[in-house]
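Students often ask why we bother encoding 3D structure as a string. The short answer is that it lets us treat folding as translation between two languages. Here is a chain of 1313 residues written in the first language.
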Amino acid sequence: MDCVLLLFQRKVDTITMDPERPCLRPSWSEALKLMNNSGFLSSLLAFQKDTITEEVVELLTPYLDMEDYNLETAKKVCGNVAGLCSWTQAMACFFDINKEVLPLKANLALQEARLIVAQTELNNAQQQLDEKQRELDEVQAMYDTAMREKQTLLDDAEACRRKMNNATALIEGLGGEKIRWTESSKHFQNQINRLVGDVLLATGFLSYSGPFNQEYRNLLLQLWKKEMSTYKIPYSDELNLISMLVDNATIGEWNLQGLPNDDLSIQNGIIVTKASRYPLLIDPQGQGKIWIKNREKNNELQVTSLNHKYFRSHLEDCLSLGRPLLIEDVGEELDPALDNILEKNFIKSGSTYKVKVGDKEVDVMKGFTLYITTKLANPAYTPEISARTAVIDFTVTMKGLEDQLLGRVILTEKQELEAERVKLLEEVTSNKRKMQELEDNLLFRLTSTQGSLVDDESLIEVLRITKTTAEEVSEKLNIAAETEVKINAAREEYRPVATRGSILYFLIVEMSLVNVMYQTSLRQFLGLFDMSMEKSVKSQITSKRIANIIEYLTYEVFRYTARGLYEDHKFLFTLLMALKIDLQAKKISHEEFQTLIKGGAALDLNSVEPKPKKWILDITWLNLVQLSHLYPFNELLGHVARNDKAWKTWFDEEAPEEAPVPDGYDRMLDTFRKLLLIRSWCPDRTVAQARHYIAESLGVKYAEGVILEMEGMWIESDNRTPMVCFLSMGSDPTENIERLSKTKNTPCRAISMGQGQEVHARRLLNQSMQDGGWLLLQNCHLGLDFLDELLDTITTIESMHDGFRTWVTTEAHPKFPINLLQSSIKFTNEPPQGVKAGLKRTYSGITQEQLEISNMPQWKPLLYAVGFLHTTVQERRKFGPLGWNIPYEFNQADFTASVQFVQNHLDDMDIKRGVNWSCMRYMLGEVQYGGRVTDDLDKHLLNTFTQVWFGENMFSDKFCFYKGYVIPKGKTVQDYMEHIELLPLVDSPEVFGLHPNADITYQTNMANETLSTVVNIQPKDSGSGGGETREATVQRLADEMLEKLPPDYIPHEVKARLQKMGTFQPMNIFLRQEIDRMQRIISRVRNTLIDLKLAIDGTIIMSEDLRDALDNMYDARIPKLWYKISWESATLGFWFTELLERNQQFHTWLFDGRPNQFWMTGFFNPQGFLTAVRQETTRMNLSKGWALDGVILHNDVTRMMKEDVTGPPPVDIGGVYIYGLFLDGAGWDRRNTKLMESSPKVLFTSLPVVHVYAISTTAPPDPKKQQGSLYSCPVYKKPRRTDLTYIFSLYLKTTKVPDHWTLRGVALLCDSK
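And here it is in the second language, the structure alphabet:
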């Protein structure tokens, strides 16, 4: 407290030590006074600190230095006063600091006084400055105004200059366009006038021309233009639909996407993209499909098919997601679920559309589009489908394919050229597109600019770019054009390869018309084409290289195709190949080709010059007349007439094609012209000469045929390519396939298809795909449903064993999936021909054990005889009606069953009695082989074989089936095989009981069959190959026929004549019925011909029947309409001649009375005629008690020919004379009136007039008539011998046993053509 007092400068007691405590005694009384003062605290707070002096602090120091003078101690002693302790310390401390601060404070006061003086001076100066600044601002404002005025003037001047420049640029830039746009403007004005017509043509094109080929489309347009001219609708003359509907740039893009660049394909592309209906592409080669897939690749195209298990969900997804959908490989019917979509029956719902698919509604989003494709080459769609879809014919054309193939050749042979060409195409395309865009942009800017053009900077820029680009582009286009010329010249060198490829492909396609199973896809063909270029011999010389490719390609295609054809079609294919190649090379003219395939079929005997000699056949003469229209045969008819002996000698040669031709023709004719001559004279040698022609035209290896190499085929195949074998009578490749699989150590799992077999087939398929086994599906024509699934599985499955193979065997079936055929390797495996081959096959299936199964001596000879019979019945088939009336399918099972029967019979046989021959013959002839036979005469033939060959005599050494064909004596199968090896390769028909002439029949039939097939498959385009068009030819023919057609019978005249002759006479009733039928035919022919002429002129619609009449008349065949109510005939010419001759017979009979002899061929119902003969004779002999059911016909062959007949038969016997019958298979001895062997090369012999009369079965036989044996010879209306053409049997005298003639197949024909 003393310290406080000292600081307040109060009185302090004298310092003394406190006796009680170790400290000074405080001045307590003074302290209390101070503390009791009420203002003590405030005085403390307001204490004047500056009053503290050095002295005071000195007095305080002893206190402050005491060790207990601190806050802690003070707090302990008296907390209330403790604060004063720290205050005093603070005051002392303050003084120390303040000592230094005070001088500074004094200095501060001094300096502040100085500052005030200076501040006053500054204010005065500032006032002066502000005044001056004001003056400066006024002057600056005046300056700025002047500068602004100057800048405005400068800007105006610049803008004016720029506008001038722009105007100049515009004038220059658009000046170039002025002329063009002025022209265009005029052109557009005209176009606007003609727009109606052009749009009409374009819409017509889009709506109607899809299903037609190029020729027809052009024709349609011409017809429409003609029609529009008539109605004065303006249209552009040189309208190019392609450029009207699509720009070149788009076409270029399409080509890059795989659309062929011929006009037809581009038109198709337009219809696909522009038509209002969804497209249905007839696309057998799959080109359209490839293009669509590439075109829609970036739009998430969904590919599906009608039988796909998710078809409905694919359809609904595409509709609702707005994606394109491709339904591939449809048939002739579509799923009804598509109806609403195809008809675009969309229901508007808010801003979107819906469509009913089946029973549910699906949204239709923008972007949905539908494509449908079919593999069928000529589908018949219902009118509904045709109306709902745009059917488009995408079939590849010959020219189109040629261009494509050329591209492929160049791609491999001259890669850099093709690359350059494609690059060029792309550049040109993009440049043209760029030009188009720039021009469009420019025109848009010009029309849409607001205000002055000269102000639009960007417009001027666009104009500048357009101009420079245009210059660049036109320069590039010029370079491109030059390069293209160079490239095309180089490309053209290789065109022969492409042309050959195109010919071969279309030939393969034509083969599918011969048999629906012969399907080869364009993809397979292109594979062969590429391989040929890869594997053929390389050469630096272009021409040599081209020849190498062509040679290799032709043979490769020949080998590949021929492997998959039946035997009888292999020759046809090779011949066509030679002809097509020579036609293209102009070595053969179209007329020559037509003459080769048709001969004189269209000519009528009555309208050509008469044949000079009897020995020349009618058909031969007509062929020669037709041939004489061609060089070098123009004088042929004269030569033959003048020098007939030489010609007959040549004709009678064994092989006329090898002998020199008379009259110097030998030097003039090459192989093909000689073929024409041989085809006209000796149809049976046509095939032989055609082989010479093939060897000369294509090369010897083509004439020899192809041997099937299973191994090679296996190497060629892969696990995704099935191998399909076409089965034929008596062929089965199973054995060969199994043998091959053994050599490859691969399991072969066979399953025969049929109802319910799919499950097992599926199991085997999966198993084989995993372990690499082979799957063999047999008789797939019985399990067609499984095949689509099979193909789908092997083409789409991700992983499968490399060794896996699919083998398929099937008979031809119209519904066999084309896809499978087109993606498979096809082959045939036909039984070899001839006795040697047949017996070899039979004995290769017989084991040693089987040979020794019976110890009876009869067993081995009988086994061989049954084998021989088995071969004979099969071999006779090829001779047509001479062999069997109906070609039966005898097969291995018949043989096995017969052998089993023989074995059983011998096991149960009584050794003493020996073989029971009647039982043996009955079982073979009536049951084992006879079970198949339906025709009575065939059954008789079979029984004759068993009669002649099966008997005790067969065990004698002298026995032979025919000379050189004996029953061998052997112990082992090897012995028999060695004997069979010694048999001749080619058998004479006599081995089978036929006359050697039968071979001529066989060869002739084969030639006719081949040529007739060629006629069938010729394309039906009008005017194919120059010369007269089909229509003109038929029109000319129709005129000629109408001119010669006999007049109609007038009903009342016929009635009057018949009454005069006796209406109810059996013969007259018969005549009336015949005339009625004749009249029906005459009317039908007349109506058809008149309608056909009108249809060709376009006056009436060409109906289905008229179209058929046109096709058939052009091919020299009988139209179906006529054929139905008339008779069979080889050619239209013969048919018409027969019509005139038949009518002549009826007309003469009706108006000149009953003839002395009758031409039996001329009757519609010859059986009715014979019945009338029986009735007539019965009525004559009623007094003798004859009854119709007891009267039979009998006959005598007279020595008279038809010219020798002067009167009717003797009245007491009655009956009729008939003529016009031909013996087939035998000759006739006129002097002794009996059968004899035919002369060589004479197939048919005219029988003299036959007297047919009726006798009663009850009357006693005439002893004079019973002499010699008789052969009951069947009479047929036509060479086709069936129940329908059988009339009755005549008895012919013979010195040989009748069985001989039965085996010869002897019959009488009313008509030999």
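Translate back mentally: The chain is about 55% helix and 10% strand. Keep this in mind for the problem set.
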